């Protein structure tokens, strides 16, 4: 199979979809790999590294898309890439279709086979290709939230860990999944007081068992959320419904109950966000302020640490890329149900219920 890796062009997206080690594996299986020049530089991999591993370097994304049977990316195609996607071409990347009607329409029109990292899942619902980036994003959420609590950036002026004689900052985490647990771990490590909410008691028991005593678990409800937003300094949105749009847990009206300078970090922004006031931002302009509340809603948080993120991502994607390359998408998705669950849009048809539900009101799915 001919596999193409274009350079990521989303704002400040510095990850790359294949490392030289991944190229070497694919070439060793008899596949041809085409990498756009300089695609790996920001992640610490030179064009020479890729050539040594057996890749063919091409100067443009147009050339990569034109020659490849399968395109492997990190983030979803953006508008300038839509015309490059070919009929029957496999696109394997993070899509997050439920948050973008424009992207969904474009991929329907392309007649491509769109396999989304974020919906590949095993029988127990574990998301192997989303997990490492959720781990990165969860840890970064605290790192970024702590920074934006500083007064010069319109935050409350709170040091999360406090100092002797001064109480620590308070962190509220909505969701006890991978992102939420990693965020709680980082916040607890800084010495902050952490409250983590979820509707899954099994997850709350797990968090209660593994976290120190200054991490408190509570069942999530509108009442409890409204109670805690009044006295927490940093609020992390860490809710995930695989493939579906995230629910709005904090409304615009609820912002008035928060103290000025409170910071909201919405890690669910890729799936539409779990705060009503969320809108996607970039690493270039990461924050905005609504009603004196600071919002950090960067849609590709792990892109800021591309070396770590690229290695973590390719550790888990490569086995699936090999399955797709060795067997072809149809046989691979049939033989491996976890990979089959990654199918989102196939030759002009949406095949996953969560996306259909997300757009049923706009009559998107016209055959």
TrEMBL record:
Keyword annotations: NAD, Oxidoreductase
Coiled coil: none
Enzyme Commission code: 1.4.1.1
Domain called Alanine dehydrogenase/pyridine nucleotide transhydrogenase N-terminal: residue spans: 4-137
Keyword NAD: yes
Reaction(s) this enzyme catalyzes, per UniProt: L-alanine + NAD(+) + H2O = pyruvate + NH4(+) + NADH + H(+)
Single Gene Ontology MF annotation: alanine dehydrogenase activity
Domain Alanine dehydrogenase/pyridine nucleotide transhydrogenase NAD(H)-binding span(s) in chain numbering: 149-297
SUPFAM superfamilies the record matches: Formate/glycerate dehydrogenase catalytic domain-like, NAD(P)-binding Rossmann-fold domains
Keyword presence, Zinc: no
Family, similarity comment: Belongs to the AlaDH/PNT family.
UniProt-recorded name of the protein: Alanine dehydrogenase
Organism: Flavobacterium suzhouense
Gene behind this protein: ald
